[in-house]
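Section 4.2 – Deliverable D4.2 (structural model, holo form)

The reporting period included a commitment to supply a predicted holo structure for the target in complex with flavin-adenine dinucleotide. Inputs used:
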Amino acid sequence: MKVIEHINNAKDCLVSFEVLPPLKGKTMAAIYDHLDPLMEFKPSFINVTYHRSETMFKKMANGTFEKVEVRKRPGTVGICAAIKNHYQVDTVPHLICGGFSKRETEDALIDLNFLGINNVLVLRGDAPKNETFFEPEADGHKYALELLKQVANLNQGLYLEEDIKNGGKTDFCIGIAGYPEKHFEAPNLETDMAYLKAKVDAGAEYIMTQMFFNNQKYFDFVKLCRNNGIEIPIIPGLKPITNKKQLNILPKIFHVDIPNELSDAIMKCKTDEEVEKIGTEWLVQQSKELKQYGVPVLHYYTLGKPKVIWNVVKEVV
Ligand code: FAD
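Output (structure tokens):
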């Protein structure tokens, strides 16, 4: 079932989870171990993130360096299919522009459609680790909007090869990313909002947000979206803080603020267990307030911490 159908059919707030493909060399068992305890909460769907390959420089025998592309995690198509079949749950693969040509994107979409997966979260992706700016592939997309249009075209039966007639229309439900605290490259929230609206006008059916630790940021974002004519559901993305280092890492990587009250409490902790307790309590309160506000889904980034997420969700559902 599509994410939007889950939302439209729901009588109460739904729960969903997000997993990272395990590092190369591991098997699906790593994902099942991670998800097994969380399945008792009957998630409506499970997202699987996508991680582009990284450019590395390998030292050769003659002392020179060779540029190599290293993929650390397997792709999402197979993982989504395995999760869907193992648990009979809907899956949402993340699809990014970075590292993909339009043709490779079309192939991935054809595979997903073939496997009966009819949800995608379309994203631009970030620059590779050792590069400053995002650069699209020579025959790739520069913005998530362009990728979204390719998916929307395929939903109309429009393939890249114009001579493919009656190729069959896909039926993807398209989600997009939204940033309550602004995308870090956008000059201001209003500009970011205009590009968000363009993605909605092109066919996005729901927004999934970047993590945030202050619910007011989400409430303000929803209000701004509504004032700008964006009426689709806005799913909050939620993550617990579980160690002190994240006080610096999360703002650096995800460009989000951590409220003073939370950072103060974490700074006073002596162990990671204490931090995890504070982080769990904070996320329980955040979730309860968001549920009361009427969010359609509570979406949890599980990121290697299924036990913490279990402790949160059992207090909320
Ligand atoms: P876009 O919508 O393309 O926006 C990127 C920037 O360009 C913004 O500043 C926007 O304001 C601006 N912009 C948009 N359109 C235009 C235009 N036409 N002209 C000029 N400027 C424009 N990354 C991964 O690699 N893998 C994942 O699995 C993944 N999952 C994510 C899940 C969620 C819920 C979120 C919030 C993010 C995720 N990301 C993931 C990170 C995401 O790829 C980055 O945040 C990326 O920098 C932006 O992606 P986007 O889809 O928002 O891009």
